[in-house]
Design a protein that fits this description.
142 residues, alpha+beta, Yope Regulator, Chain: A, six-stranded antiparallel β-sheet, 3 helices, disordered C terminus
Length: 142
């Protein structure tokens, strides 16, 4: 049986709905919001934080948006997520430009991740038949 979605989560999904089918998944003691498989936002303590990166962070900061912070080993850490301006929480139309920034950051992150993997058959990857076991792993018994 599925738990009933809380009102704030439902509101955030509606705010982001002009982008497409957004879904919530539990994570970090809060929830992550995904558009298809793109991680675009965090919900924590009834606050929405949108994905930001080096290319759009200044827009969030210029609007006075607060970053997502958490304590790790007694120190404050910050992730690349920012609260949207307060008025953006009033309607999907006001949220749309901020949601698009989050989507663009998620697309750039996915492209960067895909670009960092060796391509099949490229010189960067291991050659067929010459694979070595990862350090710390034992080989299977023969």
């Amino acid at each position: 049986m599925r738990a009933v979605m809380d009102e704030f989560t439902q509101h955030c999904l509606e705010l982001l709905s002009p982008l497409g089918a957004v879904r919530a998944r539990r994570m970090f003691g809060g929830q992550g919001l995904y558009l298809e498989e793109l991680f675009i936002a965090i919900l924590q303590d009834e606050q929405l934080f949108l994905k930001a990166d080096a290319e759009n962070r200044a827009r969030f900061e210029a609007a006075g948006c607060e970053p997502f912070r958490y304590q790790r080993q007694g120190e404050w850490a910050q992730l690349g997520f920012y609260r949207p301006p307060e008025e953006a929480l009033d309607s999907p139309a006001l949220m749309q430009p901020w949601a698009r920034l989050a989507l663009e950051a998620a697309l750039r992150a996915r492209a960067a991740k895909a670009g960092s993997r060796p391509k099949v058959g490229s010189k960067a990857g291991p050659k067929a038949g010459k694979l070595k076991p990862s350090p710390g792993r034992s080989r299977p018994a023969r």
